[in-house]
């Protein structure tokens, strides 16, 4: 039986690695939008009324500003890998984000949507991509050890808004908390694709942006 254990692990690695590759091909890539696009800087809503949809895992838990800056940089990097050019970068769009303010326009979520429309109009853009980080928990502990670990956990929403027609045309939701292989064999393909180790929250965010932008056609 002891000799069979390594063989079983090798077989599982092969099967789930293939499964992991297959899952990437299943990502639906929409046609690239035609028109001017503004990429908003990442925001970190701390209350549910600041969201365009859904609910926060925890209200009142802000994320460090340097994480938002890193996410902005990562967004630009992924767009570059996808050969997306000619868009307004987060550093530019943030200027309009700082100018515009939330107003009392009916429900608070209506106000949040109206705010992002105004930012898009301020940028004279046909579309605006609004990325929001809803939850951020970084890895604590040794990456290769399976004890005393606080796994990375990330919740990200990407909204693609048609400014001219005033509607959300596409949305991508990412909610991932890494689990050890011993707790969830169904995620073995993803586990091995990550090198068989614990990953950081920023590495999870990279996965979210890679897959999310592709699904949004960017």
Structural summary, described in words:
The protein is α+β, with helices and mostly antiparallel strands. It has a single domain (4-215), classed as Rossmann fold, CATH 3.40.50. Helix content is 39%, strand content 16%. The chain is built from six helices and four strands; from the N terminus they run H-E-H-H-H-E-E-E-H-H. It has helices spanning 4-25, 65-81, 90-99, 108-122, 188-193, 201-215, and strands at 37-39, 127-137, 153-162, 167-177. It has a four-stranded mixed sheet, sandwiched between helices. Strand 3 and strand 4 (167-177) form a beta hairpin. Helix 3 (90-99) packs across helix 4 (108-122). The longest helix is centred in the first third of the chain and has 22 residues, at 4-25. The protein starts with a helix and ends with a helix. Mean pLDDT is 80; it is low at 1-26.
- Estimated radius of gyration: 19 Å
How would you name the oligomeric state of the polypeptide chains in this document? single chain
As a percent range, the share of helical residues equals 25-40%
Q: What is the class in the CATH system?
A: Alpha Beta
Order of helices and strands: HEHHHEEEHH
Q: Beta-sheet strand percentage?
A: 15-25%
Fold-level CATH name:
Rossmann fold
Net shape: globular
What is the overall pLDDT average? 80
Largest sheet: 4 strands, mixed
When the domains are counted, the total is: 1
Low confidence ranges: 1-26
Distance between the termini: 50 Å
- Number of helical segments with 4 or more residues: 6
Please list the strands of the largest sheet in the order they lie side by side.
1-2-3-4
CATH superfamily name? ABC-type transport auxiliary lipoprotein component
CATH architectural name:
3-Layer(aba) Sandwich
């Amino acid at each position: 039986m002891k000799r069979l254990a390594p063989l079983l692990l090798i077989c599982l690695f092969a099967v789930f690695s293939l499964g992991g590759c297959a899952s990437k091909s299943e990502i639906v890539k929409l046609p690239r939008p035609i028109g001017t696009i503004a990429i908003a800087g990442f925001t970190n809503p701390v209350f549910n009324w600041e969201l365009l949809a859904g609910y926060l895992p925890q209200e009142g838990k802000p994320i460090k500003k340097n994480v938002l800056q890193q996410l902005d940089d990562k967004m630009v990097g992924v767009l570059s890998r996808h050969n997306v050019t000619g868009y307004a970068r987060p550093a530019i769009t943030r200027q309009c984000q700082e100018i515009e303010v939330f107003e009392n326009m009916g429900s608070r979520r209506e106000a949040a949507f109206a705010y992002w429309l105004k930012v898009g109009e301020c940028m004279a853009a046909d579309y605006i991509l609004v990325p929001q980080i809803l939850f951020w928990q970084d890895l604590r502990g040794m990456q290769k050890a399976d004890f005393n670990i606080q796994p990375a956990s990330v919740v990200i929403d990407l909204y693609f808004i048609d400014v001219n027609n005033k509607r959300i045309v596409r949305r991508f939701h990412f909610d991932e908390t890494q689990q050890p292989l011993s707790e969830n064999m169904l995620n073995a393909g993803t586990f091995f694709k990550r090198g068989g180790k614990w990953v950081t929250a920023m590495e999870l965010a990279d996965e979210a942006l890679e897959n999310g932008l592709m699904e949004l056609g960017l």
